[in-house]
Each structure stands twice: as C-alpha cells, then as structure tokens.
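Sorry to interrupt, but I need a hand with the structure work. Could you write out one complete protein record for me, on any chain you like? Just paste the record in under my message, thanks.

. . .
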Amino acid sequence: MRHILLTLVALTILSGSALGETINTTVNGMVCAFCATGIEKTFRKQPEVATVHVDLPKKTVTITTKSGRTLTDAKVKEIVTYSGYSMGKIIREK
C-alpha cells in the first residue's frame, strides 16, 4: 500500500511539471452554462491548451497550456472575442 501511495505522489508531481503556464482571465457577458460551454470548447480546440476550467459564478476562465507551449494575450483575446464576449485583464502563472 505504501509503495502505491508513493507511486501516486511521484506521478502527480511529474504530471504537474509537464504542464506549461496557467492563464487566468475574466470574461464579461458570460451569464449562463451555454456561454461557459462555448468558451470552453473553443479553447479546447487550440493545440497549445492542456486544460480549461470555466468558473461561471466568478466569470473567469483558467487555461493551462501544454509544456513548452503558450497562448499570446492577443490569441486569448481573439478567442474570447470570437466567442462573442469581452474580457478583462490576463494573469499568467508559471
């Protein structure tokens, strides 16, 4: 049991280091689950994106990129605008 637990911890650490950066932005005008789903699907289509999380109550989108990949601020804005919304500031984390 201990060996399994150590293996799971090691895999968790390694998988976290395989991800790129985290990009957070607010999306103005996102008011329903349909809106959130549309934005999520559009970001998931991008080859740089590993994961997307949309928080509807907070009106935020959190994107994690693949290792060694990134989305420019202009691309994030383009995707949000293409989806029919405007956005606030972008915050990046490594």
Summary: The domain at 19-93 is CATH 3.30.70.100 (Alpha-Beta Plaits). The chain has a mean pLDDT of 87. The two ends are 33 Å apart (CA to CA). Helices lie at 2-17, 33-44, 73-82.
